[in-house]
Amino acid sequence: MDSGEATSDYRARLAEKRAEADERRRTELQDLTSTANAPAARIRAWERAHGLALPRAESHPVLASLAAATRLTLEQVQEEQRRRFLPA
Question: Where are the chain's structural domains?
């Protein structure tokens, strides 16, 4: 808070920033599960939301959670792994 800023202005500015952050988070979560998005896009949205990369191991324990969060099957997630990590 600036020394010249009124407490009510400071609170209003904080509330606006929180609302903007909430809206960004809602949009990110919507991107995770939107069937309009391809599996690769949904997985990238999951990666952005969690600050993690898709694991390389096909049996990594997080894959089941990733699949559930993106409403994809485990097979779809593993297919994206193969697409990304296997040589062409």
Answer: 7-85
What's the chain's Rg over C-alpha atoms?
A: 19
Q: Are 35 and 72 in contact (CB under 8 A)?
A: no
Contact 78, 85 (CB under 8 A): no
Its pTM surpasses 0.90: no
50-71 pLDDT, tens digit per residue, is 999 999 999 999 999 999 999 9
Integer distance in angstroms from the first to the last C-alpha of the chain? 54
pLDDT digits 0-9 by tens, 24-48: 888 888 888 899 999 999 999 999 9
